[in-house]
From TrEMBL:
This is Nucleoside hydrolase. The keyword Hydrolase applies. Residues 15-309 form the Inosine/uridine-preferring nucleoside hydrolase domain. Gene3D superfamilies: Ribonucleoside hydrolase-like. It comes from the Bacteria. It holds the Pfam family IU_nuc_hydro.
Amino acid sequence: MPLPSLAPGARPVPVVLDCDPGHDDALALLLAHADPRLDLRAVTVVHGNQTVDRCLRNALAVCTVAGITGVPVARGADRPLVRPLRVAADIHGESGLDGPLLPEPTVRADDRDAVTLLADTLRAADEPVTVVATGALTNVALLLRAHPALRDRVREVVWMGGSTGRGNIQPLAEANAANDPEAAAEVLDALPLTMVGLDLTHQALVTPEVVARFTALGTPVGTLCAELMTFFGDRYAEVFGMTDPPLHDPVAVAMVADPTLVRTVRANLVVETQGRWTAGATVVDLDRVTGRPDTATVGLELRVGAFFDLLLDAVATYR
């Protein structure tokens, strides 16, 4: 089916994708560029699933395969604010995007660093920009430190990170939060934030039927997605014992394009930075037991079928 079009008189939402490709980031990038309800102004890359240089190459390779041009892609932070670098080679492989044979990128990185590109993009926009972050929030925290006057130019940060009570790198800490909890805490204190956490993204499971739908598109990008998800699924089965892998990052992009896909609540959210066993935990007061004010929007329930239909329709636009 064709992607939904803009409502009469509506304007696409200006977005920046801050990512660390990563298998699920790659699909998030494809969706962000294809959906007509989104205006992808820039892509910035951060450390996380692999080193920032490997993540940058992966972003450029995906753009090359998909024919995404005219969107600047910039290298960002190569390490967390205060903690040592940690990568996820056990899930994403040594390249960060293991599985398919990717071409040498012909799309080139922007000459600016990520913070400069973010600042320039915010200044140039005629309305506040939504930052969709699918990695550690280091780049966004560095933007706030370098350009505090630009806070009002960010509509919100929609962050694939955290959870309301589970972890995937520590018992209570999700990887994007645990990789730089200090950055997450700084961003949460400064900007409106929507958390797209594990409890939400673990509803978006890539079943064999989903992989078959990618393959059936019969296009290079459809094949790329099928191969990425096959490798991703094999790693999740080996590391976590999950039959089908959760497709985290595209959920954050999808809910910006279509907010009806996700049921959300407002809640008090804090990021643990000091705990010996819980650093990186996102503490969400769903039951309002603390009496603290609401500080974030938290995604709880995903319309799974509609989400995958949207993602497949987006991938189908690439020929």
